[in-house]
């Protein structure tokens, strides 16, 4: 101890007095704040970084800077989970041009104005299962999803039918998707025509024209899929049920002013 005190040019009595000094008010506040940060972080499944945690704290009435949140998270080893997701293409797509992109320069200003859809693939016990999802572009709310073992128009028709039953949109809705053959099959195409829904598609090889779905699948895979293995489809389905309920009702979206999709729609009503 004598050598340590000599190294830092302090006296032994001064060092022991410092050890006995009570924590400052700022340090006490940091301990309380860190407890709340841990609770929010764990509640998000370890996916929230400092921006969303700061917003969640502000929602609880805590006035705290993002830098302070970053400092406390860094000191406690808390880091939001991020994954680099590469979305490949499975199977052979037929590219047709009969449905132009109607949303390239259009942004929804209310619910049930533009729906976006896509399919991604998830591994279960060494084989692919296909997740089809429909989102409301305005609120990013998941309207319906289906998990199937075959990627075809029956899967997309099933998820669209579920969304239509839930929302019952008026005529004039735009339904936007990638240009896979599963979105051009007669079961889905005829259903949309019968309801006066305008079908819209991305350009060939242009996934960026369906950016809302790309962003959603990135979040899904980063928050739920990356780093996990599923040995049974029931386990994957249960995890998806939990996450999508959380995504709609609790997950804070930066594009929505750090509100959940359900809260965003409620605020707009």
Topology diagram in text:
Layout lengths: L1 H6 L4 H9 L4 H19 L6 H10 L6 H11 L37 E11 L2 E10 L4 E8 L4 H15 L6 E4 L8 H9 L3 E4 L9 H15 L7 H17 L11 H8 L1
Parallel strand pairs: 1-4, 4-5
Antiparallel strand pairs: 1-2, 2-3
Helix pairs in contact: 3-5, 4-5, 6-7
Question: Which descriptors would you attach to this protein?
Answer:
single chain; 269 residues; alpha/beta; 5-stranded mixed sheet; 10 helices; 44% helix; 14% strand
Structure overview:
A hairpin with a 2-residue loop joins β1 and β2. The longest helix is centred in the first third of the chain and has 19 residues, at 25-43. The chain has a 5-stranded mixed β-sheet with strand order 3-2-1-4-5, sandwiched between helices. The termini are far apart. The chain is of the alpha/beta class. α3 (25-43) crosses α5, α4 (50-59) crosses α5 and α6 runs parallel beside α7. It is built from 10 helices and 5 strands. The model is unreliable at 88-96 (pLDDT under 50). The chain has helices at residues 2-7, 12-20, 25-43, 50-59, 66-76, 153-167, 186-194, 211-225, 233-249, 261-268, and strands at residues 114-124, 127-136, 141-148, 174-177, 198-201.
């Amino acid at each position: 101890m004598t050598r340590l005190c000599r190294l830092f040019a302090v006296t032994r009595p001064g060092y022991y007095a410092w050890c006995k000094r009570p924590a400052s008010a700022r340090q006490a506040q940091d301990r309380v704040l860190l407890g709340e940060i841990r609770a929010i972080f764990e509640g998000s499944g370890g996916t929230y970084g400092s921006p969303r945690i700061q917003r969640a704290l502000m929602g609880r009435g805590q006035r705290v800077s993002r830098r302070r949140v970053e400092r406390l998270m860094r000191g406690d080893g808390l880091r939001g989970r991020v994954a680099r997701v590469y979305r490949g293409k499975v199977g052979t797509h037929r590219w047709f041009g009969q449905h132009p992109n109607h949303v390239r320069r259009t942004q929804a200003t209310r619910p049930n104005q533009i729906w976006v859809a896509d399919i991604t693939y998830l591994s279960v016990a060494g084989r692919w299962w296909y997740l089809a999802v429909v989102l409301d572009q305005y609120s990013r709310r998941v309207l319906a999803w289906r998990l199937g073992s075959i990627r075809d128009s029956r899967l997309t028709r099933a998820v669209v039918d579920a969304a239509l039953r839930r929302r019952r949109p008026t005529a004039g809705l735009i339904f936007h998707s990638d240009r896979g053959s599963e979105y051009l099959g007669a079961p889905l195409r005829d259903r949309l025509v019968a309801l006066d829904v305008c079908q819209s598609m991305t350009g060939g090889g242009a996934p960026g024209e369906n950016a809302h779905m790309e962003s959603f699948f990135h979040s899904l895979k980063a928050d739920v899929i990356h780093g996990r293995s599923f040995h049974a489809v029931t386990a994957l389905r249960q995890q998806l049920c939990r996450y999508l309920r959380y995504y709609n009702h609790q997950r804070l979206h930066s594009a929505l002013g750090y509100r959940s999709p359900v809260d965003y729609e409620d605020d707009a009503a």
